[in-house]
From TrEMBL:
Keywords: Cell outer membrane, Membrane, Signal, Transport. The gene is hofQ. Residues 97-161 form the NolW-like domain. InterPro entries: GspD/PilQ, NolW-like, NolW-like_sf, Pilus_4_PilQ, T2SS/T3SS_dom, T2SS_GspD_CS, Type_IV_pilus_biogenesis. It is found in: Cell outer membrane. GO terms for cellular component: cell outer membrane. This is Porin. It comes from Erwinia typographi. Its main location: membrane.
Amino acid sequence: MSLAFDEAPVGQVLQALASWQQLNLMVAPGVQGTLSLRLEKVPWQQALMLVARMAKLSVETEGNVLLVWPESWRQEQLHQQQIAREKEQNSLPLIAEVVTLAHADASTVNNSLLAERARLMTDRGSVTVDARTNSLLLRDTRLALDATSRWIRALDVPLEQVELAAHIVTINEESLRELGVRWGMRSDEQIARALRASQFRVALPVSEAAVTAGFTLARLDGKLLDLELSALEQENKLEIIASPRLFTSHQQAASIKQGTEIPYEVSSGSRGSTSVEFKEAVLGMEVTPVVQANGRILLKLHLSQNVPGRTMRSGEGEYLAIDKQEIQTQVTLKDGQTLALGGIFQRQNASGQRKVPLIGDIPLLGSLFRYDIQQQKRRELVIFITPRLIRDE
């Protein structure tokens, strides 16, 4: 069709379009204004949409009737419908319902509910947390209560339980090498890479360091770990310092500490009074397991090694420094696989004397029947962690 209008009323243009298709026309109040247009051989539907867009109108065809109304009129109609729905909602009675949670924490679920409340509950609805019974007291209309209860039940699921079996041992170089070979690490390079050659090892800032601190990670097959460590302990090749067994949940931290506390004096008040406080010098490990969908376990590790350092002197006395090293990392393991953390070395110096009884004590001559012994023992502190999923039978 082709159209040409100059400052024509909108109603007249609509009448021409309706006549072209032989349609009846109904125009709502508020359709006003003028249009100038010139269209040559355009489809009727396109011409109608162009006119409606320019005049800010909404159009709809119902049978053989063309309905036209202003966009503002339609918005007002929707607003009135919303008011009517709200009035109907406000007339509905409020019902109270108690939802007792079996697994999730009520306060945590309530915090999540606050973000979804506008879509689940009405403006008159309310939520009260009862920490004593781990319950949520809901008060709202029946329809809103059903939607909110379903949403809460979807969150009330048990977390995956994880058992963390740890062994903290000290072991000499030969036994460490032997243990690595038994686990299938055939070459010296693999053993060194797994448990010895730490990229994080640093020498402590003392003149004669007795401890070198560092951390190395290795993934090992831990099925025979307990048997191997027990056998080596029976042979006096290692010493098991601690074997804690912890139970925790998905994304819940578990911590292990091994060490001592160092006392020091703290001045307080203007009269010069002092009090004794303690500072930890421990090997600390915090593990947060994250159970993944494929059955693997992601361990978030926070390790710290605090050891007594050099003694610092000042005018008021002596102070003992604490050398500190920390590392944070993440390692993914299979269920039952063992993580080995090594690279913390301890060196012990021992001196003694061997002699022939009586004769060795004779001056001058006794030196031929006695000799001094100097021994240096180097041991490594190794931590083994084995996470296992606890499955309900």
